[in-house]
Write a structure and sequence with these properties.
Rossmann fold; four-stranded parallel beta sheet; 402 residues; alpha/beta; seven-stranded mixed beta sheet
Amino acid sequence: MAKQKLIKGNAVIGQSGGPTAVINQSLVGVVEALRDIAPVKKILGMRHGVSGLTTGDVVNLGKVKADKLKVIAGTPSAALGSSRDKPDAEYCARILEQCRTLDIRYFFYIGGNDSSDTCRIVSELADQSAYDMRCFHVPKTVDNDLMGSDHTPGFPSAARFVATAFMGDNLDNASLPGIKINVVMGRHAGFLTAASALARRNENDGPHLIYLPEVPFETDRFIADVQAVYDRLGRCQIAVSEGVQDARGRAITTTLVESLDRDAHGNVQLSGTGALGDALSNLVKAKVKTASGKTPRVRADTFGYLQRCWPDASPVDAKEARGAGKFAVRCAARGDRSGSIAITRVSDKPYKSSFKRIELTDVAAKTRHMPPEFIEGHSDVTAAFIKYCRPLVGDLPEMATL
């Protein structure tokens, strides 16, 4: 991509999609780096993403003092407010028009797949109309499903939550034995559900079964799995991705529950609903039996939105999210016109990573899945996944039993 001389003008930053524990680290990283770029006159923030930008609802981030930025960086959720808007070409044309009105020459959007696609369309429209503007996507998603990166800011902190939640829940399940089902976020990618495996410390620790969207889910096989673990241990802890699907690609939730709400994009609502957990719990109650023929104690929890913004961020995640924001500005400052920021793993011991710019088209509207080498059979993960994930989450609590 040809590099061009920087032009004087304003910068704007937005946050989009589901918030995370470290999305504000990226916001502050962009702000801090922009303050050192002479051609940037004002640093503006979009209220609730591009929906706020199109109505002129912006805040002057350049006036926010350093001590407040420091607190904001360590605060979960989107400080500017987020948006679920999925702009098409016409919407992006309105975004570009507002950028002209506000003299925006540097456009930074923090988000996932849809956010990268918004950046792509806006960048292409700017080029077509000969409007000189840099457009950069700063990655964010707890699902870890962006192409081109080893992992995505937001995932390590959510994975840390999942791992510690399963550690505590495993002890609860051992104290009062029964069957426990925990539904974890992940519509198409199973990384976050797989992180539950980090909870295992001893041979019989849960989760004893892990079900991912990448592996077709069969209800009869599921019941057989649960029965086998229960017969062996007298209990069973299960991790299930909200997006598990059958061999035909249908979400299991839709095959077990008759009516479900849909979001603004027509997707069946998976997060924020206990439908899958309740349906699987009822299935287990009906099919799994104790040695005496009774129904075992069965419970289900849906972690839902708790996974996204739990205020105990992974140290690696916080550092990398901040760094991704700063690197995006450095790419713009060196003359790159657009791009998305990707994290590359340099080493595991000691853990070390670096950043690189990749094309927006390499990320936009694409989904990364758990690779086969991370999946063990139909209900577990491999040692390769544990090796991949463990350095990202930080130190986990030490626990012991009598």
